[in-house]
Task: structure prediction
Amino acid sequence: MSNTPQNMKALCFFDYEFSKKHNAFFSLLDTKHVDFGEFEKNFSIELPKEFSSIFVYETLTSTLDKAHYLVEQKVFSPFSSVICHKQTAGRGQLRRKWESLTENLYVAVALPNSYPFNTEAAAPAFGAIVVQALDNLGLKVSLKWPNDLVQSKDDSYQKVGGILLEERNDVLIAGMGINLFSAPSDMELREDFFISAGQLANFNEKNMINLFNQVAYNIFLDDKNNSQNNINNIDILCNENNRFITILGFWLALVKEIKLCYEIRIKSKDPLVWLSICKKYLAFLGDNVLIKQALTKNNFQNEDCCENIYGQIVSIGEEGQLVLSSESGLIEIIGGSITKG
Result:
């Protein structure tokens, strides 16, 4: 019989293999075994009440796959998340392979079944919340419609992350990858890539690393264990071989900001706040671009009508559509890929 805790929202679960590999860090923690029945062996840590459940794994095929499985087990509530050290079969748009290099962020998070996540605007809305959350942490990125995270680089942009939304069993899951310590070279990108990949700027600065290391330690070390001895161990435990501790601290800080942005700025006040955030951080706004295989509101029922459309990006609509000014007038794009104009 499972002794899964009743209040899943306040717990962080570490799979057995992860805990063994990182025992130098987790030996400092007062962990206990939790029986999930068919689940892997896990260790649980109580989190502050402002956090939802976080499931931590050493290696997964995909955080999205694991998140969907946890939904089926009925232990994955809104803003619960999965994070792993290594991902072997990540995927992006159109189920393209996502190149999952080591020492980067690979997560999946459950979204609430409410506006804007229960509408066609879900992808750019969640992307807008993510870039706002990153900005709150001092990390500047923009949103390349509908779901890429990019940063300014030499009068252009670099792609530093991507978001993929998948719905199963009436639960919407957002999978996300962000390049923190490594990025694929141009040779490793698909042939029709538009912008190069890069690492998230400023993340590797000492003050940022210290911040996220401290976030992890403040959460996972009980007050009674938070001795000067353990504080002194930070430099030893968070060296280049333990970068995942930094990544874990980063995700703890980021998912907290994401949840707060939704609950305080959108859910509790004006639901269309996401739209103003999206416009604020929208990449290529005012630029002339080519939308490859563009799907418009007029042809969305016939994918054979997809075409390449030139125009200037002028806005985002309430349903998440990209508004383009073209020779034919304003066009509302609901699908396609932005490339150079």
Summary: The first helix runs from residue 16 to 21.
